[in-house]
Amino acid sequence: MSEPANDPILKVEDLAVHFPVGGRLFGGSRRFVHAVDGVDLELKKGECLGLVGESGCGKSTLALSILGLQAPTRGRILIEGRDISNDGGNRMDRARMAQMVFQDPYSSLNPRQTIRTTLEAPLRLHGVTARSEIEDRIADMLRRVGLRPDVAKRYPHEFSGGQRQRIGIARALILKPRIVVLDEPVSALDVSIRAQIINLLLELKETFNLSYIMISHDLGVVEHMSDRVAVMYLGRIVETGGWETIFTEPRHPYTRALIEAIPDPFRHGLSTKITGEIPNPLDPPTGCSFHPRCPEARDICRAPPIPDLEQIGPGHLARCRRVFDIPSWTPPAF
Ligand SMILES: Nc1ncnc2c1ncn2[C@@H]1O[C@H](COP(=O)(O)OP(=O)(O)OP(=O)(O)O)[C@@H](O)[C@H]1O
């Protein structure tokens, strides 16, 4: 993995996204889901940040805010130092800065459009109108993702899942964005071609000096791709650090449980399951929101307020009151 440069290309400061939901509390006040609740993070140039956590923890809402597709309730998003939190009028600029590769290559491409039309649309929208330039850029991008330029005249149904994901990657990169959000980019693909797509994404990151935010519930994929990892639970980051620190010395009991749940092929696909359900986000537990599922929870964990995200080592932060009291972690025996 290459050493990323130090400058942050993206800074997220105290970001919150609260969605109003049906029903009112006794007394008439509205109810809100706190999908993202006070997230701070930085993405350095050339870095891949893995964003992990179970379904419903707020990963997609955070990603959509970064892409400008979801207005924040509170906080700031700075791309290359510019606050873009509420500049909806600058969507065009934002599309040049940040793009997304979607999880499902089957539903993310329009079945009625040729690949050329799919790749041409963002170029035209951003003022590239000369036919020869459009042709050159489409052909170049298709080659970069490992496809022949003549596939441009074909339709999505003519391609396999892996080829469609290559087309999805070409669409995300055609405007030469600086940041790419990868939303579970290989989880819908055959296991046999996942490694090819992961390697392609790593190669393109170097070629175009991209910075990635990689969303996944699958820590196995994140381990391969990420320089740093942020673990989310119920709208908040509960642990963050370099990938090696997170995978070899996780300190938050939730991170440990996620790592222990990585399916291990040597154990015939068996893995430890995290016990209990994610709490109802409309009625979150007091104190540490993980305490009802945490094997290390004590009374102190149940008491308000919510624990802070505290530095526990170089570049390593965790949101756990018992972080220095709980036993050291032994990696699962493979
Ligand atoms: N538009 C919305 N209106 C109301 N609640 C929403 C909305 N979008 C998301 N939520 C809620 O916000 C919380 C976070 O959802 P989000 O989709 O961001 O989680 P996620 O971690 O990306 O999950 P997944 O991995 O399943 O995509 C969930 O409780 C979800 O039900």
UniProtKB/TrEMBL annotation:
PROSITE patterns: ABC_TRANSPORTER_1, ABC_TRANSPORTER_2
Compartments reported by the entry: Cell inner membrane
Main localization (coarse): membrane
Reactions accelerated catalytically: glutathione(out) + ATP + H2O = glutathione(in) + ADP + phosphate + H(+)
Transmembrane feature ranges: none
SUPFAM superfamilies with a match to the protein in the record: P-loop containing nucleoside triphosphate hydrolases (SSF52540)
Superkingdom per UniProt: Bacteria
Role description: Part of the ABC transporter complex GsiABCD involved in glutathione import. Responsible for energy coupling to the transport system.
Recorded family membership: Belongs to the ABC transporter superfamily. Glutathione importer (TC 3.A.1.5.11) family.
Protein name: Glutathione import ATP-binding protein GsiA
